[in-house]
Amino acid sequence: MLIQTVTTDSRPRHPEKAHKPDNPIQQKPAWIRVKAPTSATYHETLKIIRENNLRTVCEEAACPNIGECWSKKHATMMIMGAVCTRACTFCNVATGKPGVLDALEPTNVGAAVARLGLEHVVITSVDRDDLADGGAGHFAAVIQAIRAATPNTTIEVLTPDFLHKAGAEEVVVAAKPDVFNHNLETVPRLYASVRPGARYFNSLRLLDRVKQLDPAMFTKSGIMVGLGESRGEVLQIMDDLRAADVDFLTIGQYLQPTPKHHVVDRFVTPDEFKSLVSIAYSKGFLMVSASPLTRSSYHAGEDFARLRAARDAKLLPVEGNTQRYISLGRSTA
After folding, report:
1. Quick one: 83 exposed, middle or buried, by C-beta within 10 A (0-12, 13-18, 19+)?
2. Pairing of the two strands 179-181 and 218-225
3. Less packed terminus of the chain by CB within 10 Å, N or C?
4. What separation, in Å, do the N-terminal and C-terminal C-alpha atoms of the chain show?
5. What DSSP character marks residue 226?
6. With 60 as the cut, is the pLDDT of residue 181 above it?
7. Are 109 and 145 in contact (CB under 8 A)?
């Protein structure tokens, strides 16, 4: 809620929204309701997170899937603090002036990943516009620490847009995550009201640049629906992402965190999500996850295995006995 404080001090969680009019929160349809977390494994996961002084986007963004995921010891680590320099109207992560980076955080993340026994981990962060590199070096340090602690764990990063941070994506790509994810979040028309600190085409260029730097690296992006977008605009985003050779698309229902956040325009039905899945696959995505409860890191481990299998199935040897392959319009030697 708006009055919830960020830490033990009295800072409001969303000071920039304090004077905005309330948008009543609509009752969720039956297909979106989830059970409260109660399992012993959930509490074990919580204990490991707390003992390593870590944050998770599962908690900070009030993810509806936290009970299911934590009951499987799947937690998405949120690095670089719990305070974001942006003020997106859909997001429940606190807004304000962040503190200094925790030099021990990479080691603590690596230790937590090892204790949780994760085969696949997702690392995300708040936006850190206050840092010269947007936090790219910290992402790289976390990736390296995970590799040292548990070499067989595959790593997915969900990064900020690194707006005006020249060379930031090169630093993250050089650290060799298995998946580079950056979410477009919504359609270009709604950026001013939903994601005012970002630029749609900057985010697209970021994803395209990652593929230019490392064509073998999987790229991923996601959007929310129910913010007021049209179906045609969603299909245009698919085309834009395919033009950037993005491999994996996620689409989920926007859920309003508090009365001060962006209003839910409508609840998209499960049948509409199924239709979007079919269309997205027809446009050439290797992997698509679209449902009311889909989030960027939801079932990320299982989806990564399917993503890798889908690429292997599409790789076709050419030119006789050479080791050159053509996949999805790009060639790699």
Report:
1. buried
2. parallel
3. C
4. 52
5. S
6. yes
7. yes
